[in-house]
Design a protein that fits this description.
Blueprint: E1 3-8, H1 16-31, E2 35-40, H2 46-57, H3 63-70
Parallel strand pairs: 1-2
């Protein structure tokens, strides 16, 4: 049995159909007996939206605040 890390970017989870597709991929690996860790990015466009909100809330934000938003 292998341990697998599966990472899916924002476009991969952009809508419910794509989320279901991701779930199928993960299930296939679990069904094959693998231990799976799943890493999912924010949905398409959401990171940019959060960054913009941060800038609007405080144009003087520091690097730590920015890092917390994009992490």
């Amino acid at each position: 049995m292998a341990r697998i890390v599966m990472k899916f970017g924002g476009t991969s989870v952009a809508d419910i159909a794509r989320i279901r597709n991701v779930a199928r991929h993960v299930k296939r690996e679990v069904d094959a007996g693998h231990e799976v860790a799943v890493v999912v990015s924010a949905m398409a466009g959401k990171t940019n939206e959060l960054v913009q909100w941060t800038r609007e809330a405080s144009p003087m934000h520091d690097a730590r605040e920015y890092d917390a938003v994009v992490a």
